[in-house]
Amino acid sequence: xxxxxxxxxxxxxxxxxxxxxxxxxxxxxxxxxxxxxxxxxxxxxxxxxxxxxxxxxxxxxxxxxxxxxxxxxxxxxxxxxxxxxxxxxxxxxxxxxxxxxxxx
Length: 104
What we know:
Flagellar_prot_FlgJ_N; mainly alpha; Flagellar protein FlgJ N-terminal domain-containing protein
């Protein structure tokens, strides 16, 4: 029988040479992460406005998620909450320079 704890263990990430991760890609990924986070945040806020702001209950169900995503993307373009820089640093922390005797 498999130990349940073993199911959550993952193999360590392979080391990559410094500079092999495209800097623009890490910034884009960090911005996307912040946009997803803000979409959830804004969606919860918009649920408090009531259905009349969207034209009724059915319209609210349909358009709230689109509006939340649009507002979140705009917020990220304007600087967001400042998560992008921190997330980018965390992504780049996984990119290490291999030491002597260590394969990339």
